[in-house]
Amino acid sequence: MNQEVLSTFPLPEDLFPAHPRADKWLSDQFETVSRSQIQTWFKEDRVQSAGKPMRGSDRLQPGQTLEVQIPPAPEPEKMEGENIPLDLLYADEDVLVVNKPPGRVVHPAPGHNSGTLVHALLHAFPDISGVGDDPMRPGLVHRLDADTSGLILFARTSEALAALQQQFRNREIHKEYQCITKGIPQHARGTVDLPIGRHPKDRKRQLVHGENPRAAVTHYDLEEGLASGTASRFLIRIETGRTHQIRVHMAHIGHPVLGDTVYGGRFAQLGGRRPNAPRQMLHAFRLRFAHPKHKEPMTLEAPIPPDMQDYLEELRKPSP
Among 111-115, 157-161, 226-230, 248-252, which is the least confidently predicted range? Predict the structure, then answer.
């Protein structure tokens, strides 16, 4: 049975912005809890600092610590499909490949009990219900962050799911991304081979050499300099699929993904007269795998979505 959990959230000394609203900052620490739910926690006095209840409108201080009594997640009920538009790039009796829009959560979680990509797929392909061990993630082979757009792979049968998961374990599924980052690298091509584990103080973040680190390998190729030499567009290929891997590795080498306030902090935007990135500028655009039944090689691509393409066009302009 689910139980309440007391979690602490230390604020970094380099907090950006320096004094954010408490409800806004706390909601940014959860990928799957809505801001309205966070505001309910404040109203129920579930959020405290130094033993005193806080309001959502309170302004936070660098180095401050929040204590949050997180309520138990509701027991899962039978999931029903929802009539949500799908950008389906490939479908057969074994495999589904979807182009996920930015902002769409992949599967249900606390704060996101409807409107997910899984709900959309259950409506269009009810046969995926029961594929795999997790009823909240039927047929899911891998995930993308909510703000990352692009290709995501589902299996329609248990046999296909097992075969695709084995390909992932063997590093036989290849994922490539388009990414816009801060700055221009010293070398146009490189590899980041550094293990990633959970941040010791922030449960929603990952860290190079964090707790219980696992091997993580990211290859990058510079494709385009942008914004008069202050930003870059990369082609990125990952050998492993660690949580937030690209975001962690690119921030670690000094080129955070633009729009990624979790790992980029105050450097997540270019500043000056350049426009702000509307979200983290990361798009999973190419996926290669072997079909789980007939073993033929499959390659699918998804075009860069409009919000990212518009931002690229802005960054290609001369300095304003």
Answer: 111-115
> What pLDDT, on the 0 to 100 scale, is given for residue 73?
60
**Is the preceding peptide bond at 110 cis, omega within 30 degrees of 0?**
no
Give the predicted TM-score (pTM) of the model.
Answer: 0.76
Beta strands in 166-311 (DSSP E): 174-182, 189-193, 196-198, 206-208, 211-214, 217-226, 231-238, 282-290, 297-301
Q: Which helix or strand (DSSP H or E) is residue 38 part of?
A: helix 35-43
pLDDT of 13-27, one tens digit each? 877 677 889 998 888
| pLDDT 10s digits, 101-112 | 999 988 877 667
Is 58 considered catalytic here? no
Q: Supply the DSSP symbol for 33.
A: S
- Centre a 10 Å sphere on the Cβ of residue 273 and count the other Cβ atoms it contains: 7
| Structure tokens, 250 | 């690119």
Among the listed residues 23, 145, 147, 307, the single catalytic one is 145
Nearest to 175 by CA among 151, 194, 197: 151
**Hey, what domains does the chain have and what are their CATH numbers?**
5-70 (3.10.290.10), 88-169 (3.30.2350.10), 174-315 (3.30.2350.10)
